[in-house]
Amino acid sequence: MISSILPTYNRAPLSFVSGEGSWLTDEGGRRFLDFGAGIAVNALGHAHPALVAALTEQAGKLWHVSNLYRIPQQQALADALVEQTFAESVFFTNSGTEAAELAIKMVRRYWFERGEERLTILTFEGAFHGRSTGAIAAAGSEKMTKGFGPLMPGFKTLPWGDHDALDAALDDSVAAVLIEPVQGEGGIRALPDQCLRGLREACERSGALLVLDEVQSGMGRTGRLFAHEWAGIDPDIMMVAKGIGGGFPLGAVLANERAAAPMGAGTHGSTYGGNPLACAVGLKVMEIIAEPEFLAEVSRKAGLMRQKLEGLVAAHPDIFEEVRGLGLMLGLKCRKPNTDVTAAARDAGLLVVPAADNVIRLLPALNVPDADLAEASARFDRAAQALSVG
Ligand SMILES: *Cc1c(COP(=O)(O)O)cnc(C)c1O
User: What is the rounded CA–CA span in Å between residue 293 and residue 186?
Assistant: First the structure.
């Protein structure tokens, strides 16, 4: 008999009842160090007092009114994002895949308004943009699209890191290039800064819009508010979600004026998107993460963690191959199946997340204490020892 929950996930046999900072407690009272952070969502850890206060205060006043009315919390968060980024306009969603949908619509509408038939969006192998029909067509992988055809047309997937293929494809039929500055699901693959700069220039030459998916790499994860800032370039459109709500469902599409302007009244909408509860929390998350001191601390902690991971790779060459990533978006390429390593880590009381390319992801809370980094490394070491013996 089918389970009462649609069986689309292979779940670990764990149920958590509470969380605090980087720690989760399960039904049996066992504590786990959480280095998955709800897949890069709990950017400030569990039960952060300022977020709990922002949510409960708003919950006592007003939950939802719809976008038929002005929403001051939404306005304040949009203003903060515009102030801190390239963006001149923001639309709020409830998830990353909804942000992908709007980003695609925005690209199409932009060329429609200009009266030019530029219909192809270039994407990259290993990409992940969500699970909507548009987002799976964009990423194009067999794993996500099999059995769900006919796929939405208008995407062309290029190999990752193949400059010649990109140059050949980026002609004047291309509407936009859509890319993650650091692939998350694809195995923590960071696009080198010079490649992102080159891509920006190539888009400039061809007229194509540059769309960045920073759903996972954004909101301080790499030590900058957004990962593309390391390359010193601006996209035209950017998708954001995961960390921006700190655990409350929230996403956004950010755009410069030329990309945003064609999206006039009636062109897009969302019943929940940007509601008072989500935006009250999102505003508090922004306030904390956008502080330069906070971001500098992310980079310092990232350096510390990276060092520990390099040590693990050196100590367990039979289990680990290399360390990857940027900031606190870290990956360990494994020699043993990453699902086995993930399970061994879980047995040692450490939660991590598998990704493609036999990588495991470490995505701790951005404010993870140094002591928890040391503890995670110790638990990882125990997990690796157990795997070597077993
Ligand atoms: C998680 C993710 C998405 C999809 O977000 P959902 O909120 O799960 O819809 C899109 N792009 C990237 C890069 C992601 O990591």
Answer: 30
- DSSP for residue 248: B
Provide the domain limits for residue 205: 50-289
Q: Is 123 in the pocket of ligand 1 (CB under 6 A)?
A: no
Which atom of ligand 1 has the smallest separation from the CA of 242?
Answer: 7
Q: What is the pTM of this model?
A: 0.98
Evaluate if residue 390 carries a pLDDT over 80: no
Secondary structure of residue 179 in the 3-state scheme: strand
Mean pLDDT of 113-126: 97
Based on the fold, state whether residues 266 and 304 are members of the same structural domain.
Answer: no
Residues 198 and 301 reside in one and the same domain: no
205-254 pLDDT, tens digit each: 999 999 999 999 999 999 999 999 999 999 999 999 999 999 999 999 99
User: Which atom of ligand 1 is least distant from the CA of 180?
Assistant: 13
Nearest-5° angle of CA 150, CA 154, CA 156?
Answer: 100
DSSP string computed for 347-378: HTTEE-EEETTTEEEE---TT--HHHHHHHHH
The single-letter code of the amino acid at 33 is: L
Among 260, 289, 318, the domain boundary falls at 289
Ligand 1 close to Cβ of residue 97 (< 6 A): yes
Residue 376 forms part of a structural domain: yes
Query: How far, in Å, CA of 215 to CA of 129, rounded?
Result: 8
- Mutation choice for ligand 1 from 211, 216, 248, CB with most ligand atoms inside 8 A: 216
